[in-house]
């Protein structure tokens, strides 16, 4: 049996796969934060005073959470929310010039 981690390393060399994987970064970040905290979706939902189905929707990317929801998610998983603006590659034009 081949481990997923082995396949993932191989697939990450494929530009198409990597592009799609990177596009899911936000959803993976939520799942990873919950996993690091050792919480099930139901346990996290209880801490956030919501339902497991809400957590599932957040993690699936079907719901675009507000900053307040992300702050509650971070606090419930023992993390700090950090939001930043980063320049997009090849588009480093300055505003006003």
From TrEMBL:
One of its GO terms (molecular function) is DNA binding. SMART domains: HTH_XRE (SM00530). It holds the Pfam family HTH_3. Residues 30-84 form the HTH cro/C1-type domain. InterPro entries: Cro/C1-type_HTH, Lambda_DNA-bd_dom_sf. CDD domains: HTH_XRE. This is XRE family transcriptional regulator. It comes from Pseudolabrys taiwanensis.
